[in-house]
Specification:
- This protein has a five-stranded antiparallel sheet.
- It is built from four helices and five strands, in the order E-H-H-H-H-E-E-E-E.
- Strand 3 and strand 4 form a beta hairpin.
- Helices cover about 25% and strands about 40% of the residues.
Length: about 150
């Protein structure tokens, strides 16, 4: 399904939305980490080489915090009443400098509310490498206008 055809009443379980692809440059990783996660293996090339990752890697939240405001919010943000929770955020494999990652999200569950104009949507976000290996996933619960 294309974002542009999304209607508020089309909150269908198992509907998947492609969020796009991204490579994070060395400078993007370092700048993000300086503000949000200033650990050596995110901001110092030499320290990163000596770490278990053997190179500079994205901060755990960097992929989500790229795709969420730049792709998800522009398409769904006008229906959001409130965020309700973030859970089961799994960092399964590191994201390295200039590694192409692909992101998608799907509607995992919908919960009708007593107020007919509201619906709870449980979103499942996934991030994959170029070989379709799952790197991260998380569940975001949002109260939407219906």
């Amino acid at each position: 399904m294309n974002f542009t055809t999304m209607k508020q009443q089309q909150w269908k379980v198992n509907t998947t939305y492609e969020l796009g692809s991204k490579k994070f440059s060395e400078s993007e990783i370092i700048e993000f980490a300086k503000v949000h996660d200033p650990l050596d293996f995110h901001i110092d090339l030499e320290a990163a080489k000596k770490s278990r990752f053997k190179g500079l890697v994205c901060s755990g939240g960097q992929a989500f915090y790229h795709f969420y405001p730049k792709v998800w919010v522009p398409f769904f943000g006008d229906t959001v009443i409130a965020g309700m929770g973030l859970k089961d955020w799994n960092f399964l494999a590191p994201i390295y400098v200039n590694e192409m990652i692909n992101a998608k999200c799907s509607i995992q569950e919908t919960i009708n509310r007593e107020i007919k104009e509201e619906i709870i949507v449980v979103w499942y976000f996934e991030f994959f490498d170029k070989n379709n290996k799952l790197l991260q996933n998380l569940t975001l619960t949002v109260l939407h206008k219906n």
